TrEMBL record:
Record's protein name: Cytochrome b
Family matches, as SUPFAM superfamilies: Transmembrane di-heme cytochromes
Protein family membership: Belongs to the cytochrome b561 family.
Keyword tags: Cell membrane, Electron transport, Heme, Iron, Membrane, Metal-binding, Transmembrane, Transmembrane helix, Transport
Top-level taxon of origin: Bacteria
Keyword Ligase: no
Transmembrane annotation, as ranges: 12-33, 53-75, 95-118, 156-176
InterPro entries: Cyt_b561_bac/Ni-Hgenase, Cytochrome_b561_oxidase, Di-haem_cyt_TM
Compartments it resides in: Cell membrane
Organism this protein belongs to: Hyphobacterium vulgare
Cofactor annotation: heme b
Pfam families: Ni_hydr_CYTB
Every Cytochrome b561 bacterial/Ni-hydrogenase domain range: 6-188
Membrane topology annotation: Multi-pass membrane protein
Amino acid sequence: MTETKRYTSVAIALHWIIAIMMVMLVFIGWRMGDMAEALRGGSSEFTLDDVRFVFDMHKTFGIMVLVLSLIRLAWRFMNPVPSMPETMKGWEKFAARFTHIGFYVLMIGMPILGWLTASSGQAPSFFFNNPAWPIPDIAPNDRTLHEVTEFLHGRGGWVIIVLLVLHAGAALKHHIIDKDDVLARMIPFLRRKDQ
């Protein structure tokens, strides 16, 4: 079997779509907290409908990330992954594997935690804020469950940011300092050394 030099087009597309959506979801999630707090504090800056719209869109895109991540994971099992450069040290390979596993845990776990949080609360949720498309509850209406999952979901946003910084920093280090092909495996237009 010929060794692959880069990820497939499907893997690349899923990687970038999910990455963009996750970053967007983290920042929107933080904004949601600010909006809800302002509304609870009596601010007239936002209406309840504004807050519901943003919450429902966050939930919708979170579920989309979950579905795309499951597709990406299945695709990864069915398609060979490019091997890491031979010049990588053992600790770098370990860090790369650990980071990738961490991302899969977050890409799947964060939407599930968010869905549990939404399900265990009292407000109904709708796909694309459309009452004709309710998001099904996957947990009972339970205050303790809601508080636990909300806490974990909120802290997970910080973990995503840390992993993204490490992941992007490592990719740039490989491209700029090591001058290997790690980054070219995931950026289609980037020229690899062997070309």
